[in-house]
Amino acid sequence: MSKLTKNQKSVADKVEAGKAYTLKEASKLVKEITTTKFDASLDIDVRLGVDPRKANQMVRGVVSLPNGTGKVTRVLALCTPDQEEAAKAAGADYVGLDEYIDKIKGGWTDVDVIITMPSCMGKVGPLGRVLGPRGLMPNPKSGTVTMDVAKAVKEVKQGKIDFKVDKAGIIHTSIGKISMTADQIYGNAKEFISTVIKLKPAAAKGTYIKSIFLSSTMSKGIKIDPKSVESL
To answer: Rounded to two decimals, what is the model's pTM?
Structure first.
């Protein structure tokens, strides 16, 4: 058996096995147990009591994180010429249409979010085979297909993220960076969890929030008591 490093030993002492922490406690503890030299991503996993195979139990939504994502989000706005200047002013990194459609067809996907307009979906739709597997395909439900491209760009730049439950009934997403303060981490986690709670499907029976874990890149997961977030 390999020996634990000093950092691993200190982390093991701080997280009690089997203990479920409150969200506020976990937000502070995750910083204490993260020993990476880089600015690690902050991840949250929420296991839901839903059956994602049934359309009336699919949980999907968007949330604007009050303290941002902590990272630079590269945004491509695929829009008509009359929307280009507004999209650029809102902070879009790339703006255009046909030239970027051709670049994507050639394999270029060096962006984090793509925002487009309903009138452009005829050209964007065929890119589904390239964009879909990378999670880049614009979707009205996530607010990335909209008439107000500039507003959507601004929201994404300020910390808007979209999420959905996977086949196993788990929502996994990043809600910030470990360099954030404990209060900022708590604020983002609270906003995310409260949004998930509001999206509870009417068809979901029994316990909705089954488990929640907060972690950073390469850190141990911290179990959060679901009861501590019921009133968020």
So the answer is: 0.79
